[in-house]
Design a protein that fits this description.
The structure is a single chain. The protein is of the alpha/beta class. The chain has two domains: about 325 residues, TIM Barrel (Alpha-Beta Barrel); about 40 residues, no CATH class. It is about 40% helix and about 15% strand.
Length: about 375
């Protein structure tokens, strides 16, 4: 069996000769650390990016089969994006920077975490109509033609996803969390218009990709709209205003034979899981374990075998020792036995991960989950 065949078989509750060993990428700082330690070429650390040949090389060296989440490169966000530029610099080396969404960020030269958002260009209807709405219209040049040409020639050894975009996460990115919350009350018609505009862009994005001469194995959304205590939007608002757009897209996908529809959302997603399931999304990813101990098991108990999953492996054990990895794999065993589930580190592997421990994890997973 190919890695692609194994992954699709697991998510359809079919038997496999061995479980695919997958990852969700690496922080650039992780690659730089491993390059400095001599585990990978220094060239790999230069401009390292997600879903590249360089990432595949690192994954192969560690013992992974492939990285989950590979999709045809399309841009269902602002197009063209805003210019990324430094707005102001300060004596301590910090700076204000405008990002591609028009958000103003506070950056520091030694920081590697998510920067603080201090302002946003999108504030009201005037800024929406002047700067944003025209950037959220569908055009075919949103598809990366070089990537499309390469996909036509590939031999489908790994699963390929159709990227559906984001129905709310992109709005939260443009407005900021506070701005998105206030707009729902201050100008509900504008909030609704933003949702309609983004949803139509995502729908047209899916329509276009379905007619391309490329074979897709699953469809994939991105949201990132939860944190450690739950959603960054009221589940009731999400169900009322956003869920119908999910249903419109997932109905189209299923009419074209795509029955694995995954969604990338970090944080505690429990309150949104039933809404996604009711509206056609069936595969939760990356199932961030976090301090709330997320797992596919309670969702499977509550909602049945229609809940699929990729993720849920607590990556913090990569900074500990072999005993911690052994214990984590033991925790995963009964989850794998449920079927319809592929363990995967629950986000990109961070700089505190030790090369030898990640290798050990791959070796143990391969030995334990071989048929």
């Amino acid at each position: 069996m190919t890695h692609r065949e194994r992954a699709l078989a697991v998510l359809h509750y079919r038997s496999v000769d061995c479980l695919p060993i997958v990852h969700f990428g690496f922080w650039p700082e992780t690659i730089q650390k491993w390059a400095d330690q001599g585990h990978v070429r220094q060239e790999l650390a230069k401009d390292f990016f997600y879903r590249t040949e360089e990432e595949k090389e690192v994954g192969d060296l560690l013992g992974f089969d492939f990285g989950w989440g590979d999709t045809l490169r399309v841009n269902p966000r602002l197009f063209p994006p805003f210019e990324v530029k430094i707005i102001q610099e300060f004596p301590d080396g910090s700076f204000h920077k405008q990002n591609e969404d028009g958000a103003i960020l506070l950056g520091r030269p030694d920081a590697i975490s998510i920067p603080a958002e201090i302002d946003h260009l999108l504030k009201d209807r005037a800024s929406w109509e002047t700067h944003y709405r025209h950037r959220l219209q569908w055009t075919p040049d949103r598809v990366d033609l070089e990537d499309l040409a390469a996909r036509k020639e590939q031999k489908y050894q790994f699963p390929l996803g159709l990227f559906c975009g984001s129905l709310y996460g992109v709005i939260r990115d443009m407005l900021g969390l506070e701005g998105a919350c206030y707009l729902q009350v201050d100008d509900e018609p504008l909030f609704d218009e933003m949702i309609e505009t983004v949803a139509e862009l995502c729908y047209q994005n899916v329509v276009y990709q379905l007619d391309l001469p490329v074979h897709f194995d699953y469809a994939h959304f991105w949201e990132d709209i939860c944190f450690k205590n739950g959603p960054l939007i009221s589940p009731a608002v999400f169900a009322q205003k956003i869920a119908p757009h999910y249903r419109r897209i997932t109905d189209l996908l299923r009419s074209r034979g795509l029955d694995i529809i995954s969604l990338d959302c970090d944080g505690k997603i429990d309150a949104l899981v039933p809404i996604w399931l009711e509206n056609g999304v069936n595969t939760m990813f990356p199932i961030e374990v976090g301090t709330w101990n997320a797992s596919i098991e309670p969702w499977r108990t509550a909602y049945g075998p229609g809940v699929l999953g990729v993720g849920g492996m607590n990556k913090i054990v990569f900074s500990r020792d072999r005993a911690a990895i052994d214990a984590e794999i033991e925790r995963l065993k009964p989850l794998v036995e449920l079927g319809g589930y592929i363990p995967c580190p629950d986000h990109r592997i961070p700089p505190d991960a030790e090369w030898e421990l990640v290798q050990y994890y791959c070796e143990r997973m391969r030995r334990i989950f071989a048929a």
